Amino acid sequence: MKVFSLAVVLAPPNSTSTILVSASDLSSFSFYQRGSVAEFMSFFTKTIAERTPQGQRQSVQENSYTAHVYNRGGAEQLAGVIITDQEYPVRPAFSLLTKLLDDFIAKVPQASYKTPAAISFPEINAYLQKYQDPRQADAIMKVQQELDETKIILHKTIESVLQRGEKINDLVDRSTALSAQSKMFYKTAKKQNSCCVIM
Predict the structure, then answer these.
(1) How does pLDDT run across 43-61, given as a tens digit for each residue?
(2) Which of 78, 80, 157, 183 has the most neighbouring CB atoms within 10 Å?
(3) Strand ranges (DSSP E) for the chain?
(4) What is the pTM of this model?
């Protein structure tokens, strides 16, 4: 699970979109590929933001990448786009986009949207790093992971109890067999001793 790119896009309806801020983690690509991959991510981000109707969310797969977009619309006409690998879960991706857009709207004045180069929003890098592991960032996934771990521990405990129970059953069977043998031995010994009485 990997997040490659995260962006806030100005996406007015029926018009060209503009990337206001973005962050990317292209460390998994070779140095020589990073420029081309960054261009592809930028193109993919703008294209999907333009083609998502306002107020809607959608996910689009392209090769081994999945782009999740949330076009918030409204007065700001903003969209959030996250590009991930195909294993990245959908719910944390859209949760991140909602948080990102809320934070961006609260901290960046709408008047600055006209000059994207002047926008300072370093929080996008923190979001990119935090959501690399969706289980740590998403509370529901974190609880699910803890439940899965607990379930595994319970299964191991139940298996060990069953194994112990089987061992106890074996001991009971052996003691029953031993009791029968000891009774036989006692009777045989009594018989032997009764024939040789000393007076």
Answers:
(1) 888 888 888 888 888 888 8
(2) 80
(3) 3-10, 18-24, 56-62, 65-73, 78-85
(4) 0.66
